[in-house]
Write a sequence for this structure.
């Protein structure tokens, strides 16, 4: 798929499932805990500096953001989970909205891939495991993206890769750095393969 990244807009910031776009564009979703680097990764993928807003306060955004890429594809930024300081009410809203993306999204059959982001420095948290289990149980196609890999030395990198291969042997993974764009080409190849 040939995409003009300059022709990219934030089409919808949806706070309710009924606000999700009604058209049939393919969707690639990005899931992960607060502060795992979703917005930075989306900016890096699209070669843009500040299309996706990087919040200095993790857990602040509770919307599903649909980025329209060249009128051919949506990159969908799901709200980050697992932020300890979020109120119980906010956590319930997050849970309902994220669940709504998968269960009340009238175009869920347009979802081709979930990129499940995991901080490569810390590995999967309990919330990450919950999300991985949900994706597996629902048969949702997904890959793991290990973010912030530029902060790992060679031993730490090997440890993280070995952990993924031992604990999630059937799940494809990409190591990604939004800082130096390592993994960018590989992730786009994986996305294009998912889109067929």
């Amino acid at each position: 798929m040939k995409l003009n990244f300059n022709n990219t807009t934030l089409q919808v910031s949806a706070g309710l499932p009924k606000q999700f776009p009604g058209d049939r564009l393919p969707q690639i979703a990005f899931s992960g805990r607060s502060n795992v680097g979703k917005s930075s990764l989306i900016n890096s993928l699209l070669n843009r500096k500040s299309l996706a807003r990087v919040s200095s306060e993790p857990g602040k955004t509770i919307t599903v953001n649909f980025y329209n890429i060249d009128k051919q594809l949506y990159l969908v930024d799901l709200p980050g989970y697992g932020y300890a300081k979020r109120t119980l009410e906010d956590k319930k809203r997050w849970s309902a909205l994220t669940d709504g993306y998968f269960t009340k999204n009238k175009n869920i059959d347009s979802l081709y891939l979930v990129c499940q982001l995991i901080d490569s420095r810390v590995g999967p948290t309990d919330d990450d495991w919950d999300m991985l289990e949900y994706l597996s149980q629902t048969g949702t196609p997904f890959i793991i993206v290990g973010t912030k890999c530029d902060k790992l030395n060679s031993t730490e990198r090997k440890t993280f890769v070995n952990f993924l291969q031992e604990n999630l042997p059937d799940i494809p993974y990409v190591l990604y750095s939004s800082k130096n764009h390592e993994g960018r080409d590989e992730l786009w190849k994986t996305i294009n393969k998912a889109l067929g």
Strands lie at 8-14, 27-31, 64-69, 73-77, 111-119, 142-147, 173-175. The first strand starts at residue 8 and ends at 14. The chain has one domain: 8-195.
